[in-house]
Task: inverse folding
């Protein structure tokens, strides 16, 4: 199973809508940070650079790695392209 498929399944399970294009719209970027210990993206990949997101409809929160964050929030170019993983907050 690809990470894209795992992301799709995990994100839609945490969303109200089960349609990917509608489910993505439910999520708000909270912040990103570099951790000292490894955690996991919702797709299952181990990560140190984490992007946190919150669902506007059901208040669920998720952790995303760089690749998945770019699929959900394509405008976070500095987070995704930065090799050092900077902290962002909006």
Result:
């Amino acid at each position: 199973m690809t990470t894209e498929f795992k992301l799709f399944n995990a994100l839609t399970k945490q969303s109200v809508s089960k349609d990917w294009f509608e489910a993505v719209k439910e999520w708000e970027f909270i912040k990103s940070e570099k951790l000292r210990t490894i955690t996991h993206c919702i797709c299952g990949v181990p990560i140190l650079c984490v992007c946190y997101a919150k669902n506007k409809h059901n208040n669920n929160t998720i952790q995303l790695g760089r690749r998945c964050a770019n699929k959900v929030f394509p405008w976070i170019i500095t987070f995704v392209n930065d090799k050092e993983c900077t902290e962002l907050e909006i």
